[in-house]
Each structure stands twice: as structure tokens, then as C-alpha cells.
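Milestone 3.1: sequence recovery, worked example.
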């Protein structure tokens, strides 16, 4: 756990209420689709600091 290694696991490093969230949600149902769509933008939603910034 990288956040724990730098003593920041209380604010980042996992998906929990009250923690900062930088997350991308992809259009495809499985990570197995990634190699076949390497040059295509498959990002469905971007969440930065817990706020949706792109859909």
C-alpha cells in the first residue's frame, strides 16, 4: 500500500467515505479488453478529488 508507506493512508489509498478520490471508470466490463483497445479512449467517467469532472 503506497499511501501507508508514506504515512498518508488516513486520507488516500482506498475507496472510503471522507478520503480523496481520483478514479477513472472505463466503458468495458473487464480489464481483459484493455490490450485490444490501446489506442482508443475508453474512459467513461473521470473523478478527481471526489468530484466528477468528465463524462
Amino acid at each position: 500500500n503506497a499511501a501507508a508507506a508514506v504515512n498518508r493512508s488516513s486520507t488516500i489509498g482506498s475507496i472510503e467515505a471522507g478520503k480523496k478520490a481520483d478514479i477513472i471508470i472505463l466503458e468495458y466490463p473487464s480489464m481483459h479488453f484493455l490490450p485490444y483497445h490501446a489506442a482508443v479512449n475508453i474512459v467513461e467517467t473521470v473523478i478527481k478529488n471526489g468530484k466528477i469532472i468528465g463524462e
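The chain has one helix and three strands. The mean pLDDT is 88.
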